[in-house]
Every structure is written in structure tokens, then in C-alpha cells.
Design goal:
mainly alpha; Hypothetical protein af1432; 0% strand
Length: 340
């Protein structure tokens, strides 16, 4: 009798674009497994990511604004969900594999450090071979999750995760969808958060850009999605129209200059970055000299031949903002005492 998974694979073959990555054509996993009777191979990858510890920790990791006092700023988890929503909309419209797209989107930032890119910059300086969150995301799903066993994800999902950065070149259209969706999401929700933080106003955005792609977060996301769908439909690539791509890249550059790298007095969130970076640096140097104080799952990585500095970076990068501050206080901030 035909399984539900086999029925789903047949539906994919009948419905999806000829350029889509079919589940039955996956390059598979490093360690072969028996197939599920209900879920396709990419659905299983999605579920493994959602249920892993690294995914849960994203809720307490910085997106852009460090330790804000407010409930409505994005975290790394809400960013991930917004990327997934945008990517799935594009994938479904182009008749690509939505399950593969979702799995890549949900896993793309698993390797991010505490305190966002500020923490990443510190580890990049401290490690001889540098540190990139996209590489760390793949390392997490291959070597660290499940007490060192890894999640054994498919090659297509790992490729999409590794290549989601701007300079990446995903091998599947689904990976390319996530790559552009990540940019659409963070450009627009970082603007929204910056407006909430009173760092800028909508009217501050370059008018030559907003005249093309929209004058609100909602309008811009809608316009950018439709532009990609209209230009990519029934093509073996993910394409933006020339003017729209130029406008989006101009807005991204403007954000780096006016939000991400802007240290003026209005940008109160940036003032905490140096403190956060010092926390990461001090913790790294402490555990480098006190390896035995790390959790046993990281010590076991050392016993399996992994490089010491890399394993220390594994532990530090896996910390949430709150946990990094807690460990710093526990190790370096004196507390009061009294005689009982």
C-alpha cells in the first residue's frame, strides 16, 4: 500500500515547477535513514530544526537592538519566523518546494551569537580562522545538536543554510528564495524597530528609494515579494527587476550607515554594544583557560578531536544574551555575603 509520504511526493511531481527541488530527488543525508511513512524528507528536516535546542534559544538572542526595554522589538527568533513567512509566500507563488524553503529559513540563523553581529565580530577576531554565523549554523546541525550526533539534515537544507548570506550562492532555487527573503525581512523590520526606538522616522528614509518600493514597512514587503514573483515565475532563477534591486540595495546601505554602524546620541542601542562585546571576549578567554568548566557535551567534542578554540566558540556562540550576562556576573561580579 502506498504511504502518505509517497502520495505527497507524487503531488509534488505533478504540481511543482520543473525548477523546484522535489523531495524524492533529494541528495539525501550523510547517514542514510529509513523514510518516514507520513512526512517527506524536507518536512522531517523542518521538524528537526523546530524541535532542536538551538532554535529555542533564538528567542533570547539579539536581532539588532541590544537588550531593549519593550516587548515589541524583534529577536533572532521573530526574525527567523518573518523570513520563513516571506520565503514561503514566494516559494508557493513560484510553485517551488515550500517544505525545503521553510526548513532552510528556520535553520538559517541557528549559529548566531549572543548580542547579534556585535558578538559575532568578537569571535571572528578571536578565532584564527574567523567566525561566521552561517558556517556555525551548519556546524550546529552537523556536530553539536543531539549531544554531538547532529540532526543529520539533507544536503539541500545545509547548503541553503550555509549560503543564505548576501555573498552566498545556494544550489537550489529554494535556497535562493531564503537568501533574498532574509534581506527583505531584516531591512524592513529593522527599519520598523528603529522607528519604534525613535532612532529614525519613516520620512528620514531616502525618498528616491521609497518612491520606488513603498512608503511603509507593509507596502515595501508586499512590493518586493510581488516583484520577485513577477520576474522569477517559470524561470530557473530568483530575480528582481533592475530598478527594484538597486533601490533595495541602496536602502540596505543606508541602514548600515544610519542604524547598524551609527553611533550618534540618538542611537541608544549602539551604546551597549562595546559592553556586550567585552562580555563575549572575557567569557571566551576564561573558558579557553578553564575548559573543564564547560558543559560535558562541549568537553566531549574536545575528546573527539575538535580544536579547543573552536569548541570554546561553540559554547559561547550558543549562549543567549541573558545567559552570557548571567555567566559573566557569576564568574566576575562579586556578591554580598554574611556570617550565618
Amino acid at each position: 500500500m502506498e504511504t502518505i509520504r509517497e502520495q505527497l511526493e507524487k503531488i509534488e511531481e505533478q504540481y511543482l515547477s520543473k525548477y523546484a527541488c522535489l523531495s524524492k530527488n533529494s541528495l539525501g543525508r550523510d547517514v542514510p535513514e529509513s523514510e518516514c511513512t507520513l512526512r517527506t524528507i524536507f518536512q522531517r528536516d523542518r521538524d528537526r530544526i523546530i524541535h532542536c535546542k538551538s532554535f529555542r534559544r533564538l528567542k533570547h538572542k539579539t536581532q539588532v537592538f541590544l537588550i531593549p526595554e519593550g516587548d515589541h522589538y524583534r529577536t533572532r527568533l521573530t526574525h527567523t519566523l518573518e523570513v520563513s513567512q516571506i520565503a514561503r509566500t514566494i516559494a508557493k507563488s513560484l510553485r517551488l518546494n515550500e517544505d525545503l524553503t521553510e526548513a532552510i529559513a528556520l535553520g538559517h540563523d541557528l549559529g548566531h551569537t549572543p548580542f547579534g553581529h556585535a558578538g559575532e565580530a568578537v569571535l571572528n577576531k578571536l578565532l584564527p580562522n574567523g567566525f561566521e554565523h552561517c558556517v556555525q549554523s551548519v556546524r550546529l546541525v552537523e556536530k553539536i545538536e543531539r549531544n554531538g550526533e547532529g540532526l543529520n539534515l539533507t544536503k539541500e537544507v545545509r547548503d541553503g543554510i550555509l549560503n543564505h548570506r548576501t555573498a552566498g550562492h545556494p544550489k537550489t532555487l529554494e535556497g535562493k528564495v531564503v537568501r533574498i527573503s532574509d534581506k527583505i525581512a531584516y531591512i524592513n523590520h529593522d527599519i520598523d524597530d528603529a522607528i519604534t526606538a525613535k532612532i529614525l522616522k519613516e520620512d528620514d528614509l531616502p525618498k528616491d528609494v521609497t518612491d520606488i518600493i513603498g512608503n511603509s514597512v507593509k507596502a515595501r514587503i508586499d512590493f518586493l515579494i510581488k516583484d520577485i514573483v513577477n520576474n522569477s515565475y517559470d524561470k530557473n532563477d530568483i530575480i528582481q527587476s533592475v530598478d527594484v534591486e538597486k533601490a533595495m540595495n541602496t536602502l540596505r546601505k543606508w541602514l548600515f550607515e544610519n542604524v547598524y554602524n551609527n553611533n550618534n546620541e540618538k542611537n541608544i542601542a549602539k551604546k551597549e554594544e562595546k559592553k556586550a562585546q567585552k562580555v563575549v571576549e572575557i567569557l571566551f578567554n576564561y573558558y579557553k583557560d578553564n575548559i573543564d568548566e564547560m558543559p560535558c557535551e562541549y568537553i566531549s567534542l574536545l575528546n573527539n578531536g575538535e580544536e579547543k578554540l573552536q569548541v570554546v566558540a561553540d559554547y559561547i556562540s550558543g549562549m543567549t544574551d541573558d545567559y552570557a550576562i548571567f555567566k559573566f556576573n557569576e564568574l566576575f561580579v562579586p556578591v554580598g555575603w554574611k556570617v550565618k
